[in-house]
Amino acid sequence: MTIAIIGGTGPQGRGLALRFARAGVPVALGSRDAARAGDIARDLSDRLPDGSATITGLANDDAVAAADDFVILAVPWSGHNRTLDAIRTGLAGKILVDIVVPLAEGDPKKVDMPPEGSATEAAQELLGPDIPVIGALHNVSAHTLNQLDWDINCDVLVCGDKLDARLKVIELVKTLGVNAYNAGDAQSARCIEAITPILIRLNISKAVPFTHAGIRIWAPEH
Hints:
By secondary structure, the protein is an alpha/beta fold. Helices cover 37% and strands 18% of the residues. It has a single domain (3-205), classed as NAD(P)-binding Rossmann-like Domain (Rossmann fold), CATH 3.40.50. The longest helix has 16 residues, at 189-204. The protein is globular, with a radius of gyration of 16 Å. The termini are far apart. One of its GO terms (cellular component) is plasma membrane. Keywords: Oxidoreductase.
C-alpha cells in the first residue's frame, strides 16, 4: 500500500515519510519540483534502517497517481487551496488526509480560520462530497517526527464527515506506533487545528522547561 505525501519536502512531510517508510508503508513524496522531491527522497532513504519501505520522489500529480488509498496534504496553509485545485482530479477514489493548520500569517501562535471553519472543512468544501477529507496529525511536532530515535510523544485526533474513511485513517496512523482517536465529524477540526498554535506558544516559551510537546488522552486511574 503506497501513500502519497503532498508537500512532502517540507519538515512535517519529511518526518512523516520517514516514519511511514520505517513502519513498512511505501511513500510517494510529492512536490511541485520533481527533481527536488527525488533528491530529498534519496536523502531520507539514506536515513532509514534496513527493512524499511521505499520513499520515491515525484511531481505532485505523479505522487497522487501512485497512491493506492491515501493522499496526505502537508503543505503550508498559504498553498492549501491552490494545491488541492491542482491535484483534485487525481483524488477520485482516494482519501485525502489533511494535516494543514491555518496558522496566522506572521504569528504561528494564532490561527486564522477560513470561512468554512477549519482547513479540513475548507478542503471538503473545495473537493466536494465524493472525495472524503479526513483531518489528522495536526498536533505532531515536525522536529519529533524527524528524530527517528525519538518516540512520537502524543496521541492523534482524527476527524471527518465520512465514518468509514475516518476509521481507515485511524488504522493508518496507528502504524506509526501512536494512539489515534475518533474525534467526530469535520467540524471537530476547528478545535483540533486550534490546538497547534497553543502547543507552539508553549514550546517556544522560556517559562516552560520543554520543547516539542504534544497532547495525550489520559484514562482515569480509578
